[in-house]
C-alpha cells in the first residue's frame, strides 16, 4: 500500500473542503484540482493553518 493511498475514500471530499477553508483563512486562492503554481510560502501557510485548526479541534475535544 502506498503512503499516499486514501484509507477512507469518503473523507477525501471533507479534507478538500477543510483545505479550501484553511486557504481562505490565510488569503491563498486555491482552485479545484492542480495548484502546483503556488509558492512554497503559500503552500506552507495553508498546511500550517490546517495543522493549527486540527490542534485546536483536538484540544477542544479534551475538555
Strand content: under 5%
Distance between the termini: 36 Å
Oligomer class: single chain
Q: Which residues form runs of ≥5 with pLDDT under 50? A: none
Order of helices and strands: HH
DSSP summary, beta strand count: 0
In round numbers, the mean pLDDT is: 90
DSSP summary: helix tally? 2
Structural commentary:
It is built from 2 helices and no strands. It is mainly α and 63 residues long. α1 (11-25) crosses α2. The longest helix has 23 residues, at 40-62. The radius of gyration is 13 Å and the shape is globular. It starts with 10 loop residues before the first helix and ends with a helix. The model has no long low-confidence stretch (mean pLDDT 90).
Q: Can I get a quick summary?
A:
The chain is an all-alpha fold. The protein has helices spanning 11-25, 40-62.
Task: Give the arrangement of secondary structure elements.
Elements: H1 11-25, H2 40-62
Q: Can you tag this structure with a few keywords?
A:
63 residues, mainly alpha, 2 helices, 0% strand
